[in-house]
Amino acid sequence: MLEARLEQADLLKKVVDAIKDLVQDCNFDCNDSGVALQAMDNSHVALVSMMLKAESFSPYRCDRNVALGVNLTSLTKVLRAAQNEDILTLKAEDAPDVLNLVFENTDSDRLSEYDLKLMDIDQEHLGIPDTEYAATISLPSVEFRRICVDLMALSESVSIETSKDGIKFSCAGDIGNGAVTLRPNTNVEKPDQNVEIELTEPVALTFSLKYLVNFCKAAGLSKTVKLCLSNEVPLLVEYALAGSSYLRFYLAPKIGD
Amino acid sequence: TPLQNDLSEFFVMV
Lengths: 257, 14
Fold this sequence. Notes:
The complex is a heterodimer of chains A (about 260) and B (about 15).
Chain A: E1 2-6, H1 9-19, E2 25-31, E3 34-40, E4 46-53, E5 60-62, E6 66-71, H2 72-79, E7 87-92, E8 98-105, E9 110-117, E10 126-127, E11 135-140, H3 141-152, E12 157-163, E13 166-172, E14 177-182, E15 196-199, E16 203-208, H4 209-215, E17 224-229, E18 235-240, E19 246-251, E20 254-255
Antiparallel strand pairs in A: 1-5, 1-7, 2-3, 2-6, 3-4, 4-19, 7-8, 8-9, 11-15, 11-17, 12-13, 12-16, 13-14, 17-18, 18-19
Helix pairs in contact in A: 1-2, 3-4
Chain B: E1 3-4, E2 12-13
């Protein structure tokens, strides 16, 4: 059986909220290392890869590998019943029809129990190669969100160019052009505000802003976001979570003009 | 407008 207890329901609520507009039905693959999810959006342009390591739960028990086929809209309805600070426990049998969710508020002695019906999902699984990216940029997640939202007001696409001097986001639209350049900076007192650029070669790629703005719904999960780019390969947008868990998004680049 | 690539061109089904 599976039994996984999260100190705060907030984590799962935020993860599901960040991905539910991108993917609808997906398997939560549970094994002894944790709970993983991989799913592509319908247009096969974006991919979500989530890993909640066993260490993120306390306790965590998973006797046998189990795929929990979940409709995220339905899961959202159930998670709405959990307060952010509630203790959340996920439970399932070895061949489950339902996922049992328990929310506990220790202050008020309230215990809520929900069973979510599961579905059989025949999911395509993609092998993501280990990639040495040409550019790795770490920046505040709210900054990245602001840039994407601002540029989407002008255009559907953004060009991302990285050099040792900085990272430039630029777009061209009907009403005009826009560009935001971030230079590397280190703030000793507020490391969350740092912009760090590791570069082995300059990169220039174009992406759909609609997807990037969608990824930025995860900004509440981490104060920083990591962008990994190489020419002609998908962008990796990573939000690191506590206990080496993560929420990653991959986005195929646009090609040609 | 640039064309949009497909992720399955980069990642192989397993």
